[in-house]
Automatic annotation (TrEMBL):
Keywords: Coiled coil. The keyword Coiled coil applies. Residues 272-299 form a coiled coil. Residues 8-20 have a biased composition (Basic and acidic residues). Residues 1-20 are annotated as: Disordered. InterPro entries: C45_proenzyme-like, Peptidase_C45, Peptidase_C45_hydrolase. The keyword Metal-binding does not apply. Residues 118-299 form the Peptidase C45 hydrolase domain. This is Peptidase C45 hydrolase domain-containing protein.
């Protein structure tokens, strides 16, 4: 996975992203242009027009997001609408008709005191295998905002990672019937990573500010025995915290909050053969560790995320060749974040078969500790 070191004003950060990650950005464009046309019969011109409805909201919410996307476009030799479409890809791909929406995966797990002394979050990102070649690990040094370590698809400026205020976020996609012209969820993820506290992060995504539904696993630590991990379902019609246990929680790819279900239809028609099983298996693994009195740490997470029970629809997700092509997904990468220690562990591929690399923040920036 290519690592990019970006710094400066938002447009300059974007320009560096676009210039240094051009190959990965073009891969993202190729993947989504093919997917949208092949499965929804939408050409890229139409995709760009659909994405443009979000421009007024983004500008009003935080103009620096637009500046950074414009910088990405400048650096990669593209137009802003191309980059905007990538950042609104979930609104385009995962809402609307259940028969044409794509399948999207992910199993996310969070633990915090009193179950553990450290606050740890992690997930497997399950999606199209073709997007392996689009992945970037970004280290972003910002002016007047937190510094960020984030894994993303080329061209997308908000995704999964942590900042130097010990605040991190993971994403679970939800396939639903409704969206609005509000803030795309990937930019909502970036707003969390741009926050300096848990209450600021929550304020950035409340009051129906998200254009579509998703689950954000938000973790925050203020040191040993002082942290929290919350599974927050967001939507255009409000939000809800779904983990009742203050010390742990699991989410996959179906809506859990009754308050969200009142306004949105869950179009995940593989809920009971895939998403529900992964969620219950992860909860089972946590409970077994609790009953055995085993320490839960980053290595425990790596074992959990490599679990192959009920393959191919396992936590470590394999391609299922027996389902339609648009529902063939796999674990593309895995990430574990110890927010208390500000360490990030990345598996480039399936954790059942590939090792993790450790990264950490320091005064000198991002360090690869092997």
């Amino acid at each position: 996975m290519k690592v990019l070191h970006l710094q400066g004003e938002p447009r300059e950060i974007g320009r560096q992203h676009g210039e240094q990650g051009k190959k990965e950005i073009l891969k993202s464009l190729d993947t989504y242009e093919r997917l949208f046309y092949g499965y929804q019969n939408i050409d890229w011109k139409t995709v760009r027009e659909r994405a443009k409805i979000h421009l007024p909201t983004i500008e009003a919410f935080d103009k620096s997001l637009l500046d950074e996307m414009q910088g990405v476009a400048d650096g990669a030799g593209l137009e802003l609408e191309d980059v905007l479409a990538l950042n609104a890809r979930s609104e385009i791909a995962l809402t609307g008709d259940a028969h044409t929406s794509f399948s999207d995966g992910c199993t996310s797990i969070g633990v915090s005191p009193p179950l553990t002394s450290d606050t740890i979050i992690g997930e497997n990102w399950d999606w199209k295998g073709a997007q392996k070649d689009s992945l970037l690990l970004l280290q972003i040094k910002q002016e007047n905002k937190p510094n960020i370590m984030m894994i993303t698809e080329g061209g997308i400026i908000g995704k999964i990672g942590l900042n130097d205020h010990s605040l991190g976020v993971c994403l679970n996609a939800l396939i639903t019937d409704k969206k609005t012209d509000a803030l795309p969820i990937h930019l909502g993820l970036r707003s969390i990573l741009d926050a300096t506290s848990l209450h600021e992060a929550m304020a950035n995504i409340q009051n129906g500010q998200m254009a579509s539904a998703a689950n954000f696993l938000i973790g925050y630590s203020e040191g040993k025995h002082a942290g929290m991990a919350l599974h927050v379902e967001v939507s255009p019609f409000g939000m809800a915290i779904t983990n009742d246990d203050a010390s742990c929680g699991v989410h996959t790819n179906h809506i859990c909050a009754p308050t969200i279900q009142k306004n949105i239809t869950d179009n995940n028609n593989t809920r009971y053969s895939d998403s529900e099983i992964r969620k219950r298996r992860a909860e089972q693994l946590i409970e077994m560790a609790r009953q055995d009195g085993r320490e839960i740490n980053e290595q425990t997470f790596q074992t959990w995320l490599g679990d192959t029970f009920n393959a191919p629809n396992a936590i470590n997700h394999y391609v299922n060749p027996r389902v339609p092509e648009h529902r063939r997904i796999e674990t593309v990468f895995s990430i574990v974040m110890n927010l208390t220690e500000q360490n990030l562990y990345v598996c480039d591929g399936m954790p059942a078969h590939q090792p993790y690399q450790k990264y950490t923040f320091s005064n000198k920036g991002l360090i690869n500790n092997g």
